[in-house]
Design a protein that fits this description.
Layout (H helix, E strand, L loop, with lengths): L1 E6 L5 E5 L4 H10 L7 E4 L5 H12 L3 E5 L2 E5 L7 E2 L1 H4 L7 H10 L1 E5 L12 H9 L3 E5 L2 E5 L7 E3 L5 H11 L5 E5 L5 H12 L3 E3 L5 E5 L8 E3 L4 H14 L2 E5 L7 H9 L3 E5 L2 E5 L8 E3 L11 H8 L5 E5 L10 H6 L3 E5 L2 E5 L8 E3 L3 H13 L3 E5 L1 H4 L6 H7 L3 E6 L1
Parallel strand pairs: 2-15, 3-14, 6-7, 10-11, 18-19, 22-23
Antiparallel strand pairs: 1-23, 1-24, 3-5, 4-5, 7-9, 8-9, 11-13, 12-13, 15-17, 16-17, 19-21, 20-21
Helix pairs in contact: 1-2, 1-7, 4-6, 5-6, 6-7, 8-10, 8-12, 10-12
The protein binds ligand EPZ.
Ligand EPZ binds next to α1, α5, α6 and α12.
Amino acid sequence: MARLVIEGRRKLTGKVRIGGSKNSSVAIIPAALLGEGPSTLENVPAILDVKVFAQILKDLGALVSLNKNTMTVSPNGFTSHIAPYDLVRKLRASYYLMGVLLAKFGKAEVGLPGGCDIGPRPIDQHLKGFRALGADASVEGGVVRLYASKLVGAPVYLDIPSVGATINIMLAACMAEGTTLIENAAKEPHVVDLANCLNSMGARINGAGTDIIRIRGVKTLKGTCHSIIPDDIETATYMMAAVATGGDIEICGVITKHLEPVVAKLKEAGALIEQNGDFIKVVGPERPKPVNVKTLPYPGFPTDAQQPLTAVLTRARGVSVVQESMYDNRLGYVGELVKMGANIKVQGKTAVIEGAPRLVGSPVRATDLRAGASLVVAGLSAAGTTEIYGLEIIERGYESVVDKLKTLGACIERIED
Ligand code: EPZ
């Protein structure tokens, strides 16, 4: 087990480069199994989730090599339609294997991913899509079993613009017979990145990034070379760290378009933000202004940035209101911020945050990935020492987080217990 030790109250300054998107990588890595030949994926973040997925693909028989930020996936030897629970339990996003195995073999047996600390994670919309394509879908004994003698394109209207369901249905439909329409589709940047990657493999997908995605099935897909988009949530997290510490940082290698809701909200909080090409400069105020925010599907304010933003607002000059509309329990972590002196009241899925001049460093624990990010942001601005236990949870989604923060002037160490 490892923990972070942060000496707070240092303004972050300098430059940091953002890595590839975690949420795009965990969709595109399994998609590479659909190619007849090997695929090379560049700008893959060196994070635990990617390493775990690489191992899952190897255990499924694929040839995978991972060299820091470049992964090659050769589907030869990938012949089993079964992804057992003991394999997939380590990574929730392994549920994308449902769409891949169904597309590749016409059948799939995938262990159900668990819930997690942010709330139940149902897959009813995924199954709705598979059934629309003609698959039998059952869930029994913690295993999802899918079977289709033939996948036939069809219209699917999602009850909610689910990212996971949109991605899984796209994976299943790209080699179905005929055309599939996903309506009320998710529009997140990583949905678009996956569509672009599949099209480079020979798929015929239009409309990704809008409410309606059209997928014309093709017979086969070939290997490709694809570069993963930069991680918008990693970027948002460093932007929040700059605002929380009153710092002045430049973040390089970003796609500013993906950051519009975060930029708008942080400007409301008093940050000065300059964007140019692939970099974004953030200058934080002495103390942030209070803001109100409601998390929404893209292009609304991203739920994954809600937790680091809440940490920023604990120091605001007034009362802020944060509404978490995407998950039932994505405010459970605030108790750790309260340990640091934050004044936060939670009512259902709404947090009311009364800003205070300074938090006080304390021992705290990361309960999920973005809660961990929130505690890092809080520790960077707090007076004194903050110890964050559960660092391995943070390192699931943030590449070289200690080195990057040290580069920005943070006084931070990784301690192995
Ligand atoms: C993806 O999760 C991300 N994970 C999450 O990021 C992110 O918070 C979420 O999208 C929303 O942007 C990955 O991409 C690996 P959803 P996903 O399906 O696909 C409900 C992080 O920190 N729902 O859009 O699970 C669901 O319960 C992680 O990087 C159903 O009811 O999100 C949730 O309330 C955390 N039925 C809402 O929809 C379904 O069949 C949004 O879920 C599917 C989802």
